[in-house]
Design a protein that fits this description.
By secondary structure, this protein is of the alpha/beta class. The chain contains 6 helices and 4 strands; from the N terminus they run αβααβαββαα. The protein has one domain: Uracil-DNA Glycosylase, subunit E (3-Layer(aba) Sandwich). The structure holds iron/sulfur cluster. Iron/sulfur cluster binds next to α4.
């Protein structure tokens, strides 16, 4: 299945309750041949409004820290483990994650990234597929709010940049 077909499935998906409160499904975006995939929790208000991932405050902060380390956002495939916004931005329930994860698995199988960066705790439930390196980092929204986490997040992204440099050589 192509990513385009997958996106249409996500836009029309009714497999869990979350679509009911959403304006847009947010499948994710990035090049088909991305070597690095970023996975967050699920879309927030601005993402729901625009249909694009990580475009709100946390997304802008993430993009800035990536750029500071020489990583271009447009080189990455950016998505979430759950594709619709949840009420009051609550953490998605287990049954919602279970219903949505097959879309992420299909995206991974199409894109075949070398590295998957897991942003925050919920993203750790991303399926672990053979031959892919998984790197866990703090979610940018937590990093924005707390000074210690911000410093750690910057260190983690700097480490990620070094790792990406090795797969690009
Ligand atoms: S969150 Fe995922 S499983 Fe639930 S309706 Fe949206 S696309 Fe379907």
């Amino acid at each position: 299945m192509s990513l385009e077909e997958l996106n249409y499935q996500i836009y029309g998906c009714r497999k869990c309750r979350l679509w009911q409160g959403a304006k847009h499904g947010v499948p994710g975006e990035g090049p088909l041949n991305a070597k690095v995939m970023l996975v967050g929790q699920n879309p927030g208000a601005e993402e729901d409004e625009t249909g694009r991932p990580f475009v709100g405050r946390a997304g802008k902060f993430l993009t800035k820290v990536l750029a500071e380390n020489g990583i271009k956002r447009e080189d990455l495939f950016i998505t979430n483990i759950v594709k619709h916004i949840s009420p009051q931005n609550r953490k998605p329930f287990d049954d919602e994650i279970a219903a949505c994860v097959p879309y992420l698995t299909m995206q991974i199988n199409v894109i075949k990234p070398k590295i998957i960066v897991l942003l925050g705790a919920t993203a750790k439930e991303t399926p672990r597929l053979e031959g892919i390196e998984y790197i866990e980092v703090i979610h940018p929204s937590a990093a924005m709010r707390f000074g210690k986490m911000r410093a750690k997040f910057r260190e983690q992204i700097a480490e990620l940049a070094k790792r990406i440099a090795t797969i690009n050589t």
